Amino acid sequence: MRADRVFAYGVTAGLIGDRILGDPRRGHPVAAFGRAAAAVERALWRDDRARGALHTLLCAGGAAAVGALGARAVRSRPAAARIALTAAATWAVVGGTSLGREARAIGGALAAGDAEVARERLPHLCGRDPQALDEQQMARAVVESVAENTSDAVVGALVWGAVAGVPGLLAFRAVNTLDAMVGHKSPRHLRYGWASARLDDVAGWPGARLTALAAVLAGPDRRGAVRAWRADAAKHPSPNAGPVESSFAGALGVRLGGTLAYAGRVEHRAVLNGAAGRPVEVADIERAVRLSRRVTWVALGACVAARTLVSRALVARTTEKGRRA
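Given the sequence above, the corresponding structure tokens read:
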């Protein structure tokens, strides 16, 4: 069976597995990677960019190497084994179902008027300071996190899986996890996490644009999504969160961005879709989760189609060379 078909069947099965099973409560492969990366940090840490770059190389490179070894082990096996490996890797690295569950849990608490429960659950979804947020601000934070994590936890992995197979799937999630662990601008990680943050920006670039495009195609307001993306994406401090959050804001007809609080640190960001959007409501959390799911399937179709076209082009080129020889 051709590699493009193995990829198509494998990632589809992996996404269905995530949809049915979600993330395990214990023993998640990403959590195991996080513990290993933390151990590497304890051994290497210095307030130095070079040490941080070595940390990134060891951890992300190690994840890619594990994927390459796995792919090599099943290379000569029946197609079912290769599909199963791709499916398992996809299930391990995507987190769309858990993302939706956490968002809905917070939305349910807010809808029931239980702001304290919502504040307790918010750190499971994002790094905002829940004590500094009122109900409307928490709803906005959830919608923004759903948008950004659709790219980080799902679409970006699919893109790199299409590019590099199982090693690409594992390496992307490793890079994204490292950014969450050391890529933030805390005093300890300002230098040490520089390489992880920059690599995450590079690795996340194609997935973020595909996520934004899929939000345009799958959203309820296509024109609004395009307008907000074009007008406001560059205003966001993140080169990848900007297109994603602005396109989601336009598609849903809401305003995102503004003042944010992170563990006592306050940021004043530009408002996305400010001219045409309305304030986020609790009901918009469910709308954002549904849009995230539609975006996932649109992105899957795009990645499978791209991989198939490239594979066919390579086969045709090889055949043509054989004829000429």
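The two ends are 26 Å apart (CA to CA). Try to locate this feature in the token string yourself.
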